[in-house]
């Protein structure tokens, strides 16, 4: 009996009976903002007693991340709620937790004569993301509502990769560019003028609440099994973002990950990144997302959203 008691105490002292930590496999794109936050997030984990450990899996691009999540190779990626709603319509149980509401922007040279969407008529417009880019669809909706203008037919569209579009704007080969936020930030830092950004588009469409553009996506069934670990991960992610926005030392550590030269551009990038923090995500913001969904559904003629005219229940993680 004494031997059994001794053996039990030995096992407990070595942690053999301690609860195993949850390994959260997260799919991360190289150079993406999630990768920026990993050093600060790891520091937050070391400082506290977390119930999880991160298993970082790098993915080549957004589509590769989606494939990895659907195949079960990772537990979490960053993606958008439109995609999540479409999956739920097909019977999947993925759900979305907001990460950032930062969006792209329509940028023109500082001396450009383009001051409104009407001035885009007959111009060459560079568009990142293709025909179904959300900002492009919403910009068309705004032009139709405000000026009864068919923007798609009014401009000469140029689709290309974001960095190539920036170069074409600098060379004068296109007149304006609708680009992702970090590429728009690079142009703004060099003196280019933002005509309107994603938030401005929504505001002019009558949607005043901030709407998350991207967020963490994971299976609801997985979240139910790992509730405590997931909560701690989401809290640690918020803390990491706040650290990058408040600590110059933490920001200096991740500068190589941004792959940007020039202090002015880095400063501008940081400002825009921090401006995307989600302060609140409640019923009002989710209803606003539902309005955005309906606009995208109509403008894309179901090509982006699928047949459903409304967001699927459970799209947003509660």
List the helices and strands and how they pair.
Elements: H1 2-13, E1 22-29, H2 33-47, E2 52-59, H3 62-71, E3 77-79, H4 81-89, E4 94-100, E5 105-108, E6 124-127, H5 134-147, H6 151-154, E7 156-159, H7 162-170, E8 176-179, H8 181-189, E9 193-197, H9 198-204, E10 214-219, H10 220-225, H11 227-246, H12 248-258, H13 263-275, H14 283-299
Parallel strand pairs: 1-2, 6-7, 6-8
Antiparallel strand pairs: 3-10, 4-10, 5-8, 5-9
Task: Summarize the entry for a quick read.
Residues 1-18 form the signal peptide. The protein is of the alpha/beta class and 318 residues long.
Computed CA radius of gyration, to the nearest angstrom: 22 Å
Structural class: alpha/beta
Strand content: 15-25%
Q: What fold name goes in the CATH topology slot of the largest domain?
A: D-Maltodextrin-Binding Protein, domain 2
What number is the mean pLDDT?
92
> Care to count the β-strands?
10
**Unreliable stretches, pLDDT < 50, 5 or more residues?**
1-18
- From N to C, what is the helix and strand string? HEHEHEHEEEHHEHEHEHEHHHHH
Distance between the termini: 50 Å
CATH superfamily caption of the largest domain: Periplasmic binding protein-like II
* Quaternary organisation of the protein chains: single chain
Helix-residue proportion: 40-55%
CATH class wording of the largest domain: Alpha Beta
CATH architecture of the largest domain: 3-Layer(aba) Sandwich
Strand order of the largest sheet: 7-6-8-5-9
Shape: globular
Keywords: Signal
Pfam families: NMT1 (PF09084)
Organism: Candidatus Methylobacter oryzae
Signal peptide: 1-18
